[in-house]
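Exercise 7b. Backbone tokens:
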């Protein structure tokens, strides 16, 4: 008769991999559960669709924290499914930081496509006051809205500039600082057109409002140039109108504006204090060497600077010096200005 040990050995020989079969069974069960998630989708999120919410994604945000945020904002309804898609398609390293406007209930796979820029996503970008055209181009490119070189080319499109009555060679000065929403990979011409349209709307509003009770002392193109200088010189809100008034007084007297901001735009990078050599750089934009306004804007001014250029404060100041805290000391005579400068330098 066959012994008990022999029977056991024979049974083991017939099924040599019981553990392996169990592992395969468990794995298949796991994938069946995942597939059921995929098939069912996110019914909770789908019920709340029809509106958009803002979601800000920082570079250091983990995939788990992102899932928490998207769930809280009702963009997705299943964190396990979000984790699965992120792992299976390797989305985690491809998610791009930024401020997004995401549809509520869009679903786990779709939101990952948007955040990785596989599909066009609606992103938010803030263009600060005083940014140059190149800085605007870099900000747009960083957020995937359009390439910087393509944007700059569109800024020099004569047909587009003519459409908005921009008389300069580029759109510098007319790219209105604001927070915008754009789709990623937008046509550069459409992006420039949007910024120019916003400038035109705001400038018309300021020119025709009670903020400018007197006729502007300058034609529109020169008003924009003055505003671009004021934007880079003024630091505190209460001084914008006063600084604009100083430059208008100097223009009326035929004095050089001697604006440090116009020299800074000629340098590779901004400086806290200009050297004498800096002020001697030959350029029509150097208002230490050339009287009058420079030939074009040096930055893109915002609402406050445009309002100041349209309605400069009336006073008898011709000079100002930075105090080092954002404010300035204003002087009527060169002797007063020299004393104020010595006082500021002595304090520093």
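Sequence design result:
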């Amino acid at each position: 008769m066959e012994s008990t040990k022999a029977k056991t050995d024979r049974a083991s020989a017939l099924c040599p991999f019981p553990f392996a079969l169990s592992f395969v069974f468990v794995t298949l069960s796991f994938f069946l559960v995942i597939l059921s998630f995929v098939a069912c989708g996110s019914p909770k999120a789908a019920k709340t669709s029809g509106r958009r919410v803002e979601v800000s994604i920082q570079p250091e945000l983990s995939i788990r924290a992102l899932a928490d945020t998207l769930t809280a904002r009702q963009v997705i309804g299943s964190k396990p499914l979000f984790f699965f898609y992120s792992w299976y398609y390797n989305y985690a390293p491809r998610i791009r930081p930024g401020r997004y406007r995401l549809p509520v209930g869009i679903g786990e796979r779709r939101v990952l496509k948007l955040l990785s820029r596989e599909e066009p996503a609606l992103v938010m970008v803030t263009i600060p006051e005083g940014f140059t055209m190149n800085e605007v181009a870099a900000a747009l490119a960083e957020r995937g809205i359009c390439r910087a070189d393509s944007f700059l080319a569109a800024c020099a499109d004569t047909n587009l500039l003519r459409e908005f009555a921009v008389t300069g060679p580029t759109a510098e000065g007319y790219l209105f600082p604001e927070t915008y929403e754009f789709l990623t990979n937008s046509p550069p011409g459409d992006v420039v057109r949007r910024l120019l349209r916003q400038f035109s709307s705001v400038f018309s509003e300021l020119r025709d409002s009670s903020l400018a009770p007197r006729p502007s002392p300058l034609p529109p193109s020169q008003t924009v140039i003055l505003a671009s200088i004021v934007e880079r010189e003024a630091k505190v809100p209460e001084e914008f109108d006063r600084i604009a008034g100083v430059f208008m007084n100097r223009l009326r007297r035929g004095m050089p504006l001697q604006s440090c901001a116009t020299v800074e735009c000629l340098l590779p990078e901004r400086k806290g204090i200009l050297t004498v050599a800096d002020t001697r750089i030959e350029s029509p934009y150097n208002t230490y060497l050339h009287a009058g306004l420079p030939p074009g804007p040096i930055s893109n001014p915002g609402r406050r600077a445009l309002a100041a250029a349209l309605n400069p404060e009336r006073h008898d100041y011709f000079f100002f010096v930075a105090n080092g805290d954002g404010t300035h000391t204003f002087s009527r005579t060169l002797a007063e200005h020299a004393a104020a400068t010595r006082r500021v330098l002595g304090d520093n």
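Instructor comment: Confidence is low (pLDDT under 50) at residues 4-8, 10-17, 35-48. The two ends are 107 Å apart (CA to CA).
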